[in-house]
Design a protein that fits this description.
Layout: H1 5-14, H2 16-21, H3 33-48, H4 53-78, H5 88-97, H6 105-121, H7 126-132, H8 135-160
Helix pairs in contact: 3-5, 4-5, 4-8, 5-6, 5-8, 6-8, 7-8
Length: 161
């Protein structure tokens, strides 16, 4: 089902859940909304990075739980599951990827690229979860797993580089 741009913009910009689910409007990008959503997560990451790891982790878990609700509401308003413009899951996935990673440009760039790789290509079980798990949890969980995969590789790189 195709959704007209006016409806999408209304949900993304006029409903609180849609505004957050669409990453403050970043998910309205005309191409690669997931990449733009991931980029939009970086300023919030910079605010979170200096926090103690326990606070960073707690905020990320809260963002995940909130994301289940936000993504479900936005999907409901749009009448489709996992609209491409819903990017709150990319926010959380990137924050997972960058957990405990040095807050320096090379690590941020590497984490960004790793997360986008796993989010785009969806190796098992990410693709399976993306297809089988529905609702807000389904929208969130594939990006969480992509973030975990990217985080594991990034932590190995941090340890040995």
């Amino acid at each position: 089902m195709s959704i007209d741009r006016k409806t999408t913009q209304h949900v993304a910009l006029k409903t609180p859940s849609g505004f957050l689910a669409f990453g403050f409007g970043s998910g309205l990008a005309p191409f690669a909304p997931g990449t733009f959503g991931t980029l939009a997560a970086i300023p919030l990451y910079w605010l979170m990075a200096p926090l103690p790891w326990t606070v960073y982790l707690a905020l990320t878990v809260i963002a995940f739980i909130l994301g289940i609700y936000l993504c479900e509401r936005a999907s409901h308003h749009l009448g489709v599951h996992d609209h491409g413009g819903i990017v709150w899951d990319e926010f959380v996935g990137l924050w997972i990827t960058l957990f405990l990673v040095p807050n320096e440009w090379p690590w941020l760039l590497t984490g960004f690229l790793l997360f986008r790789f796993f989010d785009i290509f969806k190796p098992f079980p990410i693709k399976w979860l993306d297809k089988k798990v529905k609702g807000g949890f389904g929208i969130m969980i594939d990006d969480v797993i992509a973030g975990v995969f990217a985080w594991i590789i990034l932590m190995i790189l941090v340890r040995f580089v």
